[in-house]
Each structure stands twice: as C-alpha cells, then as structure tokens.
Amino acid sequence: MFGNMPELQIGHLRAKTPVIQGGMGVGISLSGLASAVANEGGIGIIAAVGIGMNGGKISGDFSEANAEALRQEIRTARSKTDGLIGVNVMIALTDANRLLEVSVEEEVDVAIMGAGLPLKLPVSIVETGLKNIHTRFIPIVSSGRAAELIFNHWAKKYSHIPDAVIVEGPLAGGHLGFKAAELTQASNTLENLVSDVISAIRPFEQQFQQPIPVIAAGGIYTGSDIYKFLQLGASGVQMATRFVTTHECDADIRFKEMYLDCRESDLRIIDSPVGLPGRAINNPFLESVSAGEKKPFKCPWKCLRTCNFEKVPYCIAKALIFAQKGKFHYGFAFAGSNAWRADKIISVQELMDTLKKEYQCESRTMRLDNVQTQPNFVYDYI
Ligand SMILES: Cc1cc2nc3c(=O)[nH]c(=O)nc-3n(C[C@H](O)[C@H](O)[C@H](O)COP(=O)(O)O)c2cc1C
Prior knowledge:
By secondary structure, the protein is α/β, with parallel strands linked by helices. The protein has two domains: 8-251 and 344-358, TIM Barrel (Alpha-Beta Barrel); 255-324, no CATH class. It has twelve helices and 13 strands.
C-alpha cells in the first residue's frame, strides 16, 4: 500500500518493519518485550547487561550466571516468536566476549554492540569465521569517525565488515557515546550524524560490494520521525524509550509509571560510574548522589571494565536492578529525552500500528506537498 514502511534488510535477514527495539538493561528488555516486537515484524532485542544478577542473586560465578541467564532468555524469546530476535551486549562489560559467544551459539539473528568500540571479537567467533555464522553483527557508534575506525579495523583484521551500523545521537536514553560538553553541540544532531556515518561507510560498501544499512537512534518517537530519517538515507531506526510504556516491557509497573509521571524538566544528564554521561529521570537517589552522598557497596565482581569501583559513589548495576524492580529508593531509571511524552501504557501491537499509521500519514503529506510545489507533477498515485 501507498506510503508503507519499507522492510529492513540486514545481510540475509529481513525485518518487515524497519524498527529495532533498543536493548535496555538491566532487565528492561528481556524475552517479553523482545518477542512482542519480533511478532510485530520488528527486531526485538534482549539486553544482556546484568542479566544473571536480575534474579536477585549477586554471588557465585557471575560470568557463568550471566551466560546461562542469557541463554535461557534467548530460548524463552524463541519459544514466543518466529520473528527476529537479537541481543545487546555492552562492550564495556568484563564478560562481553562470553555474552557474544552465547548469542552466536544460540543463533540470535543480530548481536548489537554498544557502549564501547568492538575491536576485538571472541576468538571462537573469529575461528569459525564471521561468514559462517547465522548472527549478524551491528556496532553502535556516535560519529562517522568511530564507524570508520571499526570498519577499517574489521576489514584489516577479519577481512569482513559489520553487517549494519547504528548511529546513536545525543537524545538517546542510557549511556551516551559523547563527552558531556558534546551533548549540546549544535552540530551533533542525529540528522548530521546519520549523514556523517553514511559518508564514512560508503567506501566499505564499495570495497566489500555489500550494502551496509545505517540505523538511526536517539530521540525517535513517532512514525513521522521514522519517515524523516528514512528520507535522510537511514534504512531503519532503533527506538527504546517508547517501548518502555508497553504492557510487554519487562520492567516493574513502577518503572513504567516513572515514565508516565515524569516531566520534561525531570530528564537530566548524569555522570555514570561507567565513565560516560547518561540520560535518566531525576529522583531523590540521583539528587543525593549529586549532593555528594556515597552509597556504600561491596563489589563482588567488577562487571564493567571501565568502573573504578573503589572510587565511584554507588554501584550502577545494583541501582539499575533496583529500578527494574520499582525500588527507586535505591536506584533510578534511565530514559531518553522523549520519556515525558508517554501518557499511557499500551500494547506493543498498538504501538507498532500507531507508528505505521503515523509513517503513512507523514509520507502522504510530504508527497502532497511536493505535488503542490510542482505544477506539472502527474497525479497518478492519488
Ligand atoms: C532504560 C534504558 C536502558 C538502556 N540500556 C541500554 C543497554 O543496556 N545497552 C545499550 O547499548 N543501550 C541501552 N540503551 C539505549 C537504547 O538501546 C537506545 O539506543 C536509545 O535509548 C535510543 O533512543 P530512544 O530511547 O530515544 O529511542 C538504554 C536506553 C534506555 C532508555
């Protein structure tokens, strides 16, 4: 039909709807949300970070607890959908490579690699050969320079390049790939970053004779936004914040209500113990940290390579696990800049239908605007 969203093709995979649901840790996007999105033709993503700690156990062999919990979550998602399922692995995690190995063993469709540059892939994956495995690899970048660095490195080291790339701009939720001062720089719009990344990867598309879809993320909220970024040359979008206020989102209802109740002025940038800025909803926990209060904790396992656990004022893994359970006295919610716009909880199906309608409406309006500004235009499609 006229103005329908196009499919998103990544290597041999085809998503009927060009929407990837962004991975949200800890425990915000698990098999429930991911399978619901996959059932609607998008790509559903399970967030791997802290997945083994989510059951409340914070003892024992963490790496294996995470690996096993991820394996089970992928299997649960698979049992609920025949659609496309992926995993989000933060490269800053100490066990990032193990989580990537499990994702490949379980044959997830995509492995999305955020919060760091994925330059060193697990040996077992390299030995099998990137061409011989089902999983497609997608790094998240915040600049053309970062994309070029990753693609150059993979081309030289693996004679292979990532299958797609996600460009995440400064309006996203969670950890952001910018220095705090860069977040407000006028040139750092998602529009500019998308075209920057498209230019950076073009030589690799030619060298490897393969299309590399560019996926836009960060502040995309409506079908009309999706239309805009597809017109700018993106092949799809990644959206996270808008999926939080769905019935299927895996967080406690109090986490979702935090989104429904927040105002635009409640969204703030924090200095995360990960060593990156992050966007979150302000609350007394974050205010007390800003006021210099320390939340003493024992670090049983250094889950983040970049965390200086002896110096940081709180444990971010614990704070996010508490938030997922709705216990905001001990934690806080990450959220994108549009979180304040949600006013009710709906189903993923309703959300995807709304996005499709908004997209159609925007594409029709834009076509009609073109007709009006081009007097000789043939009215063959109305
Ligand atoms: C609650 C929350 C948790 C997130 N957790 C992760 C994560 O674990 N790994 C990651 O790469 N990105 C994470 N993100 C970023 C999203 O995957 C996504 O790229 C980004 O938020 C897109 O912008 P939007 O939320 O405005 O749609 C998170 C975002 C939110 C809102």
